[in-house]
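ok so I'm stuck.
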Amino acid sequence: MSKIELICIGDIKFKSLKEIEKKYLQKINYYVKFTLKNKKDVKLEDEEIVKRKEGESIANALEKGDFVIALDEKGGKMDSINFARFLEEKISYHPGKVVFLIGGFAGLSPALDPMINMKLSFSDMTISHDLFKIIFLEQLYRAMTIIKGVKYHR
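replied:
not stuck anymore, here's the structure
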């Protein structure tokens, strides 16, 4: 079975969003083996130290052979159909997991760059961490329904 993973710094703080997260996790797991790894956020003021420590935590969670996609405002963009096509190709032909990364408030550590296969942006706008996680999960679910031909995407 295909495997997709999301490694995210911090956990959702709002109870109502936590319920939405739970709903999407159930829906996604119907189509693909999906794992969510919430890594502890570092609570320091020095952003460089925060990035380094959080980057080490993410790097330790990655495995050789993973196809790593950083969700980053500087990445390329895709619409939902192209995202689904891209994901279908990766989960069908890539031997390892497809791993998405969401950094903390300071962003992702540049030390992760050699491990990242691509960067993907969802918007030029800044979106709160909690809301972005939900947006990502919804788009992942949408991609799964497009791949499987389920009537959800319009």
